[in-house]
Amino acid sequence: MPTAFADVTASDSTLRRFLHGLPGVDAVGLEARAASLGTRSIKTTAKAYAIDLAISMIDLTTLEGADTPGKVRALGAKAVNPDPTDRGTPRTAAVCVYPDMVATAKAAVGDSGVKVASVATAFPAGRAAIDVKLGDVREAVAAGADEIDMVIDRGAFLAGDYMTVFEQIRAVKEACGTARLKVIFETGELSTYDNIRRASWIGMIAGADFIKTSTGKVGVNATPANTLLMLEAVRDFRAQTGVQIGVKPAGGIRSTKDAVKFLVLVNETAGPDWLDSHWFRFGASSLLNDLLMQRQKLATGRYSGPDYVTVD
Hints:
About 45% of the residues lie in helices and about 10% in strands. It is an alpha/beta fold. An 8-stranded parallel sheet has the order 7-6-5-4-3-2-1-8. Helix 4 links the parallel strand 1 and strand 2.
């Protein structure tokens, strides 16, 4: 935690005062700016660059009860070599799985440089005692996870118990050791943009390496507006502290067109320093397939169709 915020987190009342003292969000203005940035078009050369950049930013994800070692191995192989017909295709940033599949994913990606991320802290609901949540994290880290995606206690947050949320993030960060921590807010359950801004600042102050929109398991996940708001938060946090935090929109981003819109948001809001997989990720599964098809079309002039790529 940056020393500048030691007084802010001294007590529940000081934390509450800080969070409720943040500027209110102009919802109409936020959505209008997000929509305006989403209308920008890019030329062919820039589009090719954007597609490769987006591929390199994907956390290729499978988080289903029916996940098997075979499915995870196949996903790991795809992350390392997304298009077997074109070895120039970038690798994805990471593979994201449940803790019990971390060792399998780690073996699948080998020394390729693809990270293994694991959801934890009783994902996706986050409804568990703190010792259970920390056990979840330690299990994943011991199995070799490079990154941990935790969920906040939305019940505590919505009840105004901000200190509990802060302290749990701090405890999880400590349990991560050298693994990077992504903090998921589940923005679709936070109800208001003001709440998303407050959650962003709690996460950043508590030591998150990334702030993340969603689990992908609810009706409303990543949107241009909520991602824009979080990008503003990390931009302002770095301006105040010198500490850079990453952003990860997750859930519902399926097309190349959508991915490009989000990259424009990043460039125009936080700036080019965030246009790197170390600082920006897409939590997705089907997005990669569309990016590969569009990449092939740019290279060959033909649209090969969805049967050309593997179905996840």
